[in-house]
Amino acid sequence: MRFFQNERIALFIDGSNLYATARALGFDIDYKSLLNVFDQNAYMVRAFYYTALLDDQEYSPIKPLVDWLDYNGYSIVTKPTKEFTDSAGRRKIKGNMDIELAIDVMEMANRLDHIILFSGDGDFRSLVQAVQRKGVKVSVVSTIKSNPPMIADELRRQADAFIELSDLKDRIARPTAPVRPAAPRPMGMEYED
Questions:
Q1: Does any domain span residue 186?
Q2: pLDDT in tens, 57-71
Q3: CATH of the domain at 50
């Protein structure tokens, strides 16, 4: 990972994609550490985090993370998910943030030297190509070490640099809590696990 101290950078994080990638590699992201890794190596203009939220739920498991990110240096971009029924009658939830991310990248491109895209979605290949035509470098952060790889080959090839997420693990992984042994169960009682 090579950045220059005066290089203007911005992070564009596809939240659900980064979450799935980190999970596939077996760790959780410490977002404060993630911000520090990039902020100490260049001039951070902005760090965007994109995620869809379930609008009809009183509590969403992602809400505490979104609130924390919002208070700790990230620009949060959200929209409500859409619920629909597919042709087989199954209930589906859709929450794609690709357009919002692409618009922000294009709007910011003239103010940046280097864009760091946290996604493996091949749909971003054209976006990366368009930004490169403006003279902006693009690094893509994802993984090829999961099975299957979490990055589309065409996106990896288009990027100026590919950053393997597992190579950042020691610097950005959230510390894991020690596993406590289970409490002993009284004899003679049946338990369903």
A1: no
A2: 566 778 889 999 999
A3: 3.40.50.1010
